[in-house]
Structures are given as C-alpha cells and as structure tokens.
Amino acid sequence: MKRSTRIRSVTAGGPDGWGVYRRARRMAEAGEPVIELTIGEHDERTDPSILAAMNASALGGHTGYAAGEGTPELRRTIAERITARTGVATSAHEVLVTAGGQAALFAALHAVTDPGETVAYIDPYYVTYPGTIRGASAVPRVIPTRAEDGFMPSAEALSEGLTGARALIVNSPNNPTGAVYPRRTLEQIGAAATSADAWILSDEVYDTQVWEGAHISPRALPGLAERTLMIGSLSKSHAMTGSRVGWVCGPAETIADIANLATHTTYGIPGFIQDAALFALRAGPELERRISAPFERRRHIVAKQLAEQTLVRTLPMAGAMYVMLDIRATGLSGLEFAEALLDAERIAVMPGESFGDCAAGHVRVALTVSDDRLDEAMARLTRFAAGLASAAAE
Ligand code: PMP
Hints:
Elements: H1 5-10, H2 19-29, E1 35-36, H3 48-59, H4 72-86, E2 95-98, H5 100-112, E3 118-122, H6 129-135, E4 139-143, H7 155-162, E5 165-171, H8 183-196, E6 199-203, E7 228-233, H9 234-237, E8 246-249, H10 252-263, H11 271-282, H12 285-307, E9 313-314, E10 322-326, H13 334-345, E11 347-348, E12 350-351, E13 362-366, H14 371-393
Parallel strand pairs: 1-11, 3-4, 3-5, 5-6, 6-7
Antiparallel strand pairs: 2-8, 7-8, 9-10, 10-13, 12-13
Helix pairs in contact: 3-11, 4-11, 5-10, 7-8, 12-14, 13-14
The structure holds 4'-deoxy-4'-aminopyridoxal-5'-phosphate.
4'-deoxy-4'-aminopyridoxal-5'-phosphate is lined by residues 40, 100-102, 126, 171, 175, 203, 205, 233, 235, 241, 246.
GO molecular function: L-aspartate:2-oxoglutarate aminotransferase activity; pyridoxal phosphate binding
Family: Belongs to the class-I pyridoxal-phosphate-dependent aminotransferase family.
Cofactor: pyridoxal 5'-phosphate
C-alpha cells in the first residue's frame, strides 16, 4: 500500500547518526563493560517524592481523561515559573501542557507553518529538528555556524537563513554544543526574525542547566513575545524524561489553536502525570538545582582532564548536560573517532556529524555517568586521541 510522502520524509533515509549508540547498546547488553556517554538522560531516576505524588494522584482517581490543554493549576504554575524566569507577565491561557518538549515542537510547527514553507534551524542541532519540520510538511533549512565562533550564529548567517522563512528554531542552552546564547546573539536572532516576519520557536528544555552566563529567553526581549513560542519540559530540569510532560507558551490565540490540535492528537496528558509535574514545579528551584548539580560538577572533571593535554579541545561548556570535543587534531572525522574509540576502549560517544555538518570533526560527550567513570573515560579518551595523533605523525 502507498505510504504518504509526509511519513516517508520524516526520516531522510541513509544513516541516522545513531549507529555508534546502537552498537554500544548491543555490546553492553551482551555484557561488555561499555561506558556509554551517548544519550541525554540522567543517571539518577525521577525523585521518589515526585513518584509518590504521582502514585497518590492515581490512587486518588485522577486516571480518567484530563483537561486536554492541561489542568488549570498546572498551567497556572508553569505560567508563574515563566513569569519569574523571564520577567514577562504570563497567564495560564498562554500555556499548553504537552507530551514533553518534543510534542510541543511538533504542535508548534503545525500551528505556524503551511506545507512547503521553510523553517530554519541552527547547525549543529538537536537530531529531531529536521524530521519534525518535515513531519509538519515544511522544508528544513540549516543556518551554519563555526566551531571557531563557539557555534554561535552570525548576524549575516541569520539574516540569510531567515530570508523567506516562516520560522526559526533556536535552542539555548544548546544540545549538542553546550553553548548558551548571550543577549547580543538573541538580539540578532530577534532582529533577523522580525525583519523576515518569522516565528521564533525557542527550545528551552535545558533552561536549568546553565554554568556560565545566564539563560535568556527570546520571550523576554523587547517586542519578541508576540512572535515567540517557547518550548519547555520537565524531562531535563526534573529528571522526568519518561513522564513525557512539557509545554508550549506563546500568544493566547496560538495556544488555543494548539489546544485544538491536541484534541486531535494526544487528547491531553494523563492527570496523574500532570499532578506529579505540579508537585515537581512547586518544589521550586532548590530541587532543580539538586538535579542539575552533577552536570556542573562533571564539566569540571572534563576540564581538568583536558587541561593535561593540548590535542583534544573544547568550547567553554556553558550549559546543558553535554560537552563537545574537537578531535580534528587526530585527523579522523567524528564518526571515525567514535567508531574507533568504541572498538579500542569500549567508550561510546556521539559523532558530531550526527548533529549536522558544522559539528564534523567533533564528538559529543554526555555527562551522564558517575563522576569516577567519567574521569576514567576522559583519561582513556584523551590517551587514545594522543595515540592516534602520534601514529598519524609517524
Ligand atoms: N529539545 C532538545 C534540545 C532536547 O535535547 C530534547 C531531548 N533530548 C528535547 C527537545 C525533547 O525533550 P522531551 O520531549 O523529553 O521534553
């Protein structure tokens, strides 16, 4: 039977960049001692207090259809958090609860693009962006950056990339680069989007993981709230990846449109999950700090290991649960390095090329194993890189 063009286009075909990850998983399942530094998931599980709230809600009967747009208390609490963090007064009607940040992105793209319209995003990028754009029948367009500029987009590249585009996806703190966009970059993004009359889809799922500088939402910049759809999630901030709870925040009429779409897709998020999310958010910034603390600590472990050599380099590691390592001095591509490292050292990292052409010659390390294992993995990784470089020089 025929498959729709849309569904066939979600994946572009060819290698999807997850080959090293899958091979490492198979090796680990076969009992090999692999150190997996691949996916962005906490080594700690969801806090038991959040699970207790979930359990109490379910036992209390919140297991039927829940409000499709989110319970009033949860929408209000998310709006209060956004108000506190951005300084922009935000009401519950400007917030829709979604099945994680991913569903928020999907819904937001459907709400603002027509088939065939262009959506720009910045390379290196989070792996689902192009497929999500194509899933909305829109056309992806990358805006290139350079490692030498800390993977920040230039004003020229933004303006060129946004010409004729309907929307731009922005992700700060950034996966995979760990970059946190300063105000100046966000102002350039705002200027380019305004002049193209494009929407800004601001993916802020790592907003609690900022180690240098400060997280600024485009929603907080003058004149941008009306063209910004902000995407949030409890996956990273509260170690709730499996609960699938996030939100999209923007102008009330667009949120109403997206609520209408939700009626035809998810029909809402389970009530007991929403109650657990409410409990988690009410626990406040203290819990968020506790959950993000290991990543801040571990980036120092990486920095210390890298300081002992000069071959493998990195960016400032300003935010998120990843570091991007520049391994170009070994003469290998990111993919070749990742494959060889897995074979020789049983250490799995993501090839930079999985995140776009601009991350070629890099690998992404997720800081998601214990401090000791990360320390050991980084020592072995840098030794391995040195061995490759000296073999190449002979
Ligand atoms: N955006 C980015 C940049 C991510 O890294 C992720 C998850 N890895 C998501 C969105 C989706 O997160 P979730 O759907 O779990 O909220």
